[in-house]
Amino acid sequence: MRTSLLIGALFFTGFVFAQEKKTDTLKVKSIEGITLKKQVFKKQSDRFIYDVAASPIAKGTNTFNLLQQTPMISSIDGKTLKIMGKSDAVIYINSKKTNMDAEALIEMLKNTPSEDIQKIEVITVPGSEFQVESTEGVINIIMKKSKNNGYNGTLKVLDEQGYFNNPSGGLSLNVRKNKWAFNTNFNMGSWKEKEKYTLSNGDATFRNESYGMNTDPNRNYGGVVNIDYEINKKQSLGLTYNMRYNKSFNSVLDVTNWQDGVLQNRTVNTENAQTRNHSFNLNYEIKTDSLGSKLTSNVSYLWFNRDKVSSNETFPISIESQYGAIRQSVPQIINNYAANIDYIQKTAKGNSWLMGISYNHTNTDNDAKQDVFADGNFVSDISQTNHFIYKENILGAYITYEKKFNEKLSGKIGTRYEMTKSTGEILGKTDFDRNYNNLLPYLNLNYVINADNSISYTFSSRIRRPRFWELNPSRTYFTPENYTQNNPFILASKHYNQEISYMFKSAFYANLSFNYAQDASSQLPLQGTLSKQGEDEHGNPIIITTKFLRYIRTNYGINKQLGLTVGMNKSWMKEIWTTNYSVNVAYRMFSGTVSEDPTSRPAAGTTETLIPYTIDVKNFNFFAQFNNSIRLSSQKDWFLGVNYFYAGKNQVEIGESGIQQSLDLSIKKISGNWTFLVEVYDVFNQNYDRLTGIQPNGSYNNITTFGYRRIISAGATYNFGNQKLKKAREMKSANDAVKSRT
């Protein structure tokens, strides 16, 4: 208000002086105008803030594309978001964690118009109040607000042409009437993808090679409903419902297998899977004073069901090979009940206390069945038929205190205490109990050197619990001797994160981080042999030996990473050209050894021998992205996008990944309430995955996956109704921490 009055007074003074100039011989210098430029990107407390409303690239796109243009955020595959090229991103909306699974969340972001966004906050090291794990960062999306009654909505259609054609569409609607607010989003589409595989493994004495294609058709339906009722000026009640359904029938992996250069057989793996996800959250909020203090409580329920039925058939080509088949049924059912209470107390001096308590109870039921073809019939494979029941209870309490010492120095300190009790049982085979308590401290200090320079330091510790599907003791087969193996005995790992951030003129930034993990885990390749008594063609007893490659998720040891990120977000030539550039350099040190498989239960009369897998990684890796938005017309209705990323060779636990890069182009036309967007992803077809792993003993494992990521996308978005309408209040769900593990 004061700024508006000052500008008005200055313009009025200029007008009066101009009139006096006409009638008076006295020479007076007139004031031609004052330009106030808002900071688009800045550092504040424990987060970086990107002011979307003040950015020239915000109009006419969707929230996912806008996030890709946000400093420090990147996406290589168009399906996931990373912070500084390394940390997984957890999405919050209006400081409330989103209440949906990962795929539904991405679809929601792609169907939310960018005009609804006020600002985006990037929190690289979240405080104790955030429900995150390991090195996860937070992207907090702040929506625009208005209390006008009425309605608005967005209708979007999109068609993507890659190897296959994939159409999709979405509709969102927001309605506000006095104390009631309602918003919903529904989207549907098909996504059929094709991947080319090259797999090889062996040592100095033998080599296995597999070449083939995977075709995976998907149909997706998803939606969210938010209802918010303002009981009075201080109290609000809200209900949120999320659903997600994915159907993937007749997904086929077809590979031919060679051994020592001789064609052996052909393996065809056919899979039918469908996933259902329903979640409910009831939220109550009461404001306790005029300073912003409030009490928030949530009660949540989550039901997740994934059914997967597959068959793996091996057809003989060489004389030595025989027909073989495996049938699998691998369901997973998750029920989660959760509740939490948070209270934030703000003081007149701008300081604040936040205290909270949370409880999560999760029950997973995984009744996996496997049959193997033997003597002309399918018989149960007892060693791989497992009914696994897992129960987990987590009680958490957390407190943070934020204080502004003076105009230059501020800080935030907190801690989170978690008590975890879990039990697992493979019915009729084995069971285990795990009870552990963790105290997770947090510290953040910020110092404003002057108007152009600021620096901050942050320390945090976190737990990384295994995802529920990682615990399900089942296999996914590429070939009968090449498969992935989940592990119910995997342990939680503990992570310590430190970071120093520097900001210059709200445009240039540098970030130095160090991450240390104990009991680190990953998916590792274990090679070995199965030996059993048999007979040759003459009936003489012999030992039959089969070599295998098993990718198992397990703990291995220590993970240390030192990273440096430098970047800028700046507009040039009167905001005609907007740049978002960043470069990441990291030094990684992984160490450990895996010499046994706790899930192994060889059949009677069979002996299993494993080759120990050693991890000793010390290497640099490099990632850079250069995003450019160019305004092509003075009317601000035509835009050209030129984006490029480069990821250098990177040594990880499983081996060395190859170079990845992609050039993406887009052209956007804004016409009233319509936005038309044409994009070309991976113009030169350079974005594919290569992995090479060699052990000190000479054994090796190589994987190349080509996913046909060159895509031409054309879409149209229509915004209708009152675009200044306030959406229903976004509510935090008590079981948010569990959703990311489904």
From TrEMBL:
Main location: membrane
Residues annotated as domain Outer membrane protein beta-barrel: 287-718
Domain of life of the source: Bacteria
Pfam families per the UniProt record, alphabetical: OMP_b-brl_3
UniProt keyword Signal, yes or no: yes
Record's subcellular location: Cell outer membrane
Presence of the UniProt keyword Signal in the record: yes
Annotated signal peptide: 1-18
Keywords associated with the record: Cell outer membrane, Membrane, Receptor, Signal
Cellular component GO terms, alphabetical: cell outer membrane
Protein name: TonB-dependent receptor
Lineage, top ranks: Bacteria, Pseudomonadati, Bacteroidota, Flavobacteriia, Flavobacteriales
